[in-house]
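Retro notes, structure queue

What went well: the backlog is down to a handful. What didn't: a couple of records were mislabeled last round, so from now on we paste the full input next to the output in the thread. Example, using LRC18 protein from Cochlearius cochlearius:
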Amino acid sequence: KGKSKGPKGKKITLKIAKNSIRISSDGGRRLDLSKMGITTFPKCILKLADVDELDLSRNMLKKIPSSIQKFQKLRWLDLHSNQLEELPEAIGTLQNLFYLNICNNKLTTRNLPEELNLLKNLRILNLGLNCLDSIPTSLGALKELKEIGLFDNVLTTIPNSVKKLPKLKKLNAKRNPFPDSTTQEEHADSIKRIETLYLVQDKDLCSSCLKTCQDERDKLNKLKNVTPRPSKKPSFPLLLTPNSSAKDNQEEWRLR
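Corresponding output:
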């Protein structure tokens, strides 16, 4: 008998997929297959390619096939917390996409397709918690981009073409090995960003990691009350990103 090629994961049937369709707050159709133990992209969902949103987050996917291009109506794509090492070039055909979350994967700069710069309507892009050592200057073509997450990579610089995007308001580049500790603040000042950009919602974190994040946030709030600051910065309490403590336990937090 042949040897096992690793965990098979849960098999998603068309019936399961149809029952996983939800109506989003703006009336769109969302196919939610998050936290399902999926190891391979379920081909059956290609029959549901007319959905507006697709959530495959917190699974064990290693690859997204080029057939993703069939989802031409897609406006919202969440692939965070998988095992992705690359993205298909076909992702650049999703011209209606305005939200793309590929945080907490195994993506390298070399395996980021150049076709990402074709997503002209993209407004939110999360590349945090990957293995990126640089950011392609071609992302400067995303003129509608308003928020970008680059935290917890191995970046030493951020290209001017990205920093100077005309509509960019929020950028999180925390915990990257920038050569100068002031460099990151310069990035912040250049686009007048908030102190931290949160791109992962509470519901997307496991209970232990969520508690850790909340505890750390409470500690920070106490420090703020003790040490006066010259000016108040806006906070986003409904959003959450893995903090440094969660990063220490990343192998437990990351789905295998």
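Agreed that this is the format going forward. Reviewer comment attached to the example: The chain has six helices and ten strands.
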